Amino acid sequence: MAWVLLVVAGIFEIGWAIALKYTEGFSRLWPTVLFTLSMLVSVWLLAVALKTIPVGTGYAVWTGIGAAGTAILGIVLLGESRDGWRIFSIVLIITGIVSLKLSSS
């Protein structure tokens, strides 16, 4: 169950990172509200997951999900670069996440 919570926490991390872009420096109310709620849920779920998962593994997986997911949504939603090296780097992050999960079973 802790791993499910950790993945959901990572998804909320993606949510707050993307919402941060749309806050335009916290000048827009609803994106700022979404950012704040997503961040609170993300950190709370991370804290709950870390009751069971080692902190180094949990934090690395949480940030990895956030980094890879945000980069992917940046490409899809914001028209960011689809450069081969960027895609390769995202694949490396995902490989690292999977490797950490497999090594902690």
A few lines on this structure:
By secondary structure, the protein is mainly α. It is about 80% helix and about 0% strand. The protein has 4 helices and no strands.
What this model shows, in words?
It contains four helices and no strands. The longest helix is centred in the middle third of the chain and has 24 residues, at 55-78. It is 82% helix and 0% strand. The protein has helices at residues 2-22, 29-49, 55-78, 84-103. The two termini are 13 Å apart. The protein is an all-alpha fold. It is flat. 28% of the residues are buried.
Unreliable sequence segments: none
Q: How many H/I helices?
A: 4
Q: Per DSSP, what share of the residues sits in E-state strands of 2 or more residues? A: under 5%
The largest sheet, given as strand count, sense and whether it forms a barrel, is: none
End-to-end Cα distance, whole Å, is 13 Å
Global outline: flat
Mean of all residue-level pLDDT scores: 97
The tally of structural domains comes to 1
Radius of gyration over all CA atoms, rounded: 14 Å
Order of helices and strands: HHHH
Q: How does the SSE layout of this entry go?
A:
Elements: H1 2-22, H2 29-49, H3 55-78, H4 84-103
